[in-house]
Design a protein that fits this description.
Blueprint lengths: L15 H16 L4 H9 L4 H13 L6 H14 L1 H17 L7 H6 L1 H17 L3 H15 L1 E3 L4 E2 L4 E2 L5 E3 L4 E2 L4 E2 L10 E2 L9
Parallel strand pairs: 1-4, 2-5, 3-6, 5-7
Helix pairs in contact: 1-2, 2-3, 3-4, 4-5, 4-7, 5-7, 7-8
């Protein structure tokens, strides 16, 4: 049985990123009652970051043609099959907290930041693409482009610790390779055989 399905398992003992997110979310709900319902739905009702991400992505990416329940099942499958997706999401949260001056809490990317949500959706679409489910991967790419103004080809290779600031008019093509610990601002297009390495931004292209 996976650890996160074991009722004796408590993520708070072993996952400092998720522990911090939950603590910040509890404070948000206490400080501003009008967002408490949203905070509970997105964060506090879930046992792990993966569960919270599945819910958040499903609610954002769902459409009349693809209900949230089906999108969430896809996300859950991706996180279960590739635990490194969850690890990368934690690195992306830490990178955003460290490098985005507008981000003051780890909970903020999960709730508010379309750049963070777009890259997590890409990670699910990349898993689908590599699993041969290319139509579903393209559906997620389409929805991310429509909702977040980010166009990331599911075949692109992207490392962990990515911070996308503003997340407007970013295009990452199929043959692009984005390494670990990279920051992207806006209007950047690494479309073909482009390699971005640690600490580079679009100014380095």
């Amino acid at each position: 049985m996976p650890a996160d399905l074991n009722p004796r398992y408590d993520d708070r003992r072993v996952d400092p990123v998720w522990t911090t997110i939950r603590t910040e979310a509890e404070q948000m709900a206490a400080d501003e009652p009008l967002v408490a319902s949203m905070v509970h739905a997105v964060v506090l009702n879930h046992r792990s970051l993966e569960d919270a991400l599945s819910y958040r992505l499903a609610e954002k990416l769902a459409s009349s043609e693809m209900p949230a329940l089906l999108v969430r099942e896809l996300c859950d499958q991706a996180f279960a099959d590739r635990p490194e997706i969850g690890i990368a999401a934690r690195a992306d949260i830490m990178a955003t907290r460290d490098r985005d001056p507008f981000c003051h809490r780890m909970v903020e990317p999960l709730i508010y930041f379309k750049g963070f949500l777009g890259i997590q959706a890409y990670r699910v679409s990349h898993w689908l693409w590599n699993s041969g489910r290319k139509d579903l991967a393209m559906f997620i790419q389409m929805r991310v482009s429509e909702l977040f103004a980010i166009d990331i080809n599911p075949g692109a290779r992207i490392g962990r610790g990515l911070m996308i600031d503003h997340a407007h008019a970013i295009v990452i093509g199929e043959t692009a390779v984005v390494g670990d610990d990279v920051s992207l601002l806006h209007g950047v297009t690494p479309v073909s055989y482009t390699h971005l390495r640690a600490h580079e931004t679009e100014a380095d292209l």
